[in-house]
Amino acid sequence: MLTLVYSTSSLPGRQRLSLSLSLSLSRCYVTLAGDLSNQKFESHTLAYLTFVSYHRRNMHGRPRKAYKPEEEAASAAKAAKLRGLQSQFMANHHNKIYTKEAVDLSTKLLEINPEAYTAWNYRKLAVEDKLSRIESDPDLVKTILDEELRVVESALKQNFKSYGAWHHRKWVLSKGHSSVGNELRLLDQFQKLDTRNFHAWNYRRFVVELTKRSEQDELEYTDDMIGSDFSNYSAWHNRSVLLSSLLARKADGFLPNKKIPDEYKLVQNAIFTDEDDQSGWFYHLWLLDQTVNVETPLLTSSWPSHGSRISLYAGCSNGSFSKLTTFGSESGSFPLVLYFDQAVGGVSSSTVTIDSELKGNEDLVWEPVSKKNSQVSCVWVARLKYISSEPCFGKEYKVKVRVGNSPGIVSSRGFNFSASYEFVFTAHVHDTVEESSQEGIVSWTDGFDIWDAESKDLNALATLDRSNAQMDSKWRQEAIAEEIDLFRELPDSKIGKLTLARLLMAKAMISDDAVKGVHYNEILELYKDLMALDSSHYQYYKDEHSVALLRKVTSSTEDLSGHLFRCRNMNNSVCLRLNNLSLSRIASVEKLLFVQMLDLSHNELHSTEGLEAMQLLSCLNLSRNRIRSFSALDSLRHLKQLRVLDVSHNHIGEHSVDTTRYLCSSPLSNSEWPQDEVGSQMPSLATKYWDAYFVLRDLNLKQLDITGNVIAGDEFSSFVLQVVPKLVWLDGKKLEI
């Protein structure tokens, strides 16, 4: 038996909806898929689904007792009484009867079943009705509201995990006529019954805010709770909430470089007392995040990078130095890319200024590379024009970009971008159009030259680890180094190996290039061990192994140059080969913004998430991976320069029910569907292949290979030709125009 927990966030008032449904395993997946297909979710709503194993005899590690015959009889009598009360109550509710007798009936109902949420809503309506009928008499108002608090307290004694009861108590106190002095005492009673009751902890935060109790006092309370029970996850969580606030406003005695090392010592006591308890490990992971990350957003990288030189041609946009060609920009512009370490908003012509002799770039439009309707992103792109009505060919132009000189760039968490940055590059505009092999088929096997490891080009092409120079890393390095030494002494265990791998990754991210390689090699070995030790979490370890491997590849110009090539047939475009590495996840793209051709073939990728940042990408090889649908390629819609795509020999079309399809909006809920020309001409095929349609229609491909997928065939090929009218090569064959 399974319990399906379905939760949504960003609903009005930050409410949470939890529905528990007992489903048989055979019906569960079908029911889930059908439910999703009928739901219309707003793009800003986060919906996530979790399957939780449930054993009827054991809940949260606490065994349940079997019912005795007399208990079964009592339960049946209680159910009969409940049905009678429920019928009378619903009649009162529908008829809007708020007499004393009717309200008392709801009280009896809630005493038996505190989870009767409709009864709590009814009482709110009854209270509002009473308050509307009396004159402003503070004592009478207080009497009415205090009665509600009494009913709630009685209900909580029946079930102190009742959502409805806790929400009703919050509602009553929010009226402002009741004393809150008794609330912390009441909470102490309930938290003694169950120290990890998250309802009580959530309500405690609400009461603390009402009473203006200091965060320092609450932090001391978590000390007491953790001291009496290291396994109190709710206390650890509340501690992280309090510390986040105290550290953010730099309260007295709460500087990160002082407080965080102390917190490591506290959580070490919990971990080494009982290493099998997860509460301390989760808090340790949170501490590590606070150690490595900074709250204020940082500019991680850009393209063009500082000091680079790019060559531009009439009718096409070319990359840096030796004619590094993207597939051409008929609009006479090339992308400027800013990559931040966290999602930010407010990037505009007022917060990013451009000084250049190139005309027509006074008011650049910056766009976030993100999901639909989102105005925050790690990646922002503007297009700089280099062709205007005035002749400018055969000249060099200095372009200076200033980021953050004026306030306005703000992270999604509300922190301002304060580390302003300036980078300068040179644009050489040529007066001739280079010959292009654009109409010929692009091969991934011929015409590539090995990158010269001694070349100075790469140092200017790739901006590596810019963010490290913008953060105070000494105390961070010391804290992480102490933790690494400590965890090396921990007995060999899965959680110990995982934590050590995370610590080494954190150290590598803030260390000098000279020692990064050693850290990454050990990290990769740890994740290999974990994949062998813990098969139930194999995919997670596999993904983390891929991230570590890509971090290693991009950690230095020496490592990166071993994977770089020049493609002679594509005007010496920069090609990065990351094939045959068993990658299951893409990472470190902020260091690869200059790449124009990317070979990711013969890996284990399920999605292209992350590639949207690589705005110069013109050719992409994803053949022989584990991609199951076109919706897994959704990020490619942002690559305006992409002309060649190879997704041959994947698993597209194999799975009749594919959860990755829900990454794209359903055609039934897409507002653009009725106005679409292809959708109108081929409605049946557009409906059948809607995920392919929504991805391919935004691409300007000239070469596509889909052979070796179940979806491939004459029907799908004819559909592709309608959706991608500029296609020249399909599945290795030139199309007749």
From TrEMBL:
* Class of this enzyme: transferase
EC number(s) recorded for this UniProt protein: 2.5.1.60
- Could you confirm whether the keyword Membrane appears in this record? no
One family from Pfam that matches here is PPTA
The entry lists its GO molecular-function terms as: Rab geranylgeranyltransferase activity
Give the UniProt record's GO annotations in the biological process aspect. prenylation
PROSITE patterns, A to Z = LRR (PS51450), PFTA (PS51147)
Q: Which reaction does it catalyse?
A: geranylgeranyl diphosphate + L-cysteinyl-[protein] = S-geranylgeranyl-L-cysteinyl-[protein] + diphosphate
Q: Which SUPFAM superfamilies did the record assign?
A: L domain-like, Protein prenylyltransferase
Keywords, A to Z?
A: Prenyltransferase, Repeat, Transferase
Record-stated family? Belongs to the protein prenyltransferase subunit alpha family.
Its biological function? Answer: Catalyzes the transfer of a geranyl-geranyl moiety from geranyl-geranyl pyrophosphate to cysteines occuring in specific C-terminal amino acid sequences.
This protein's name = Geranylgeranyl transferase type-2 subunit alpha
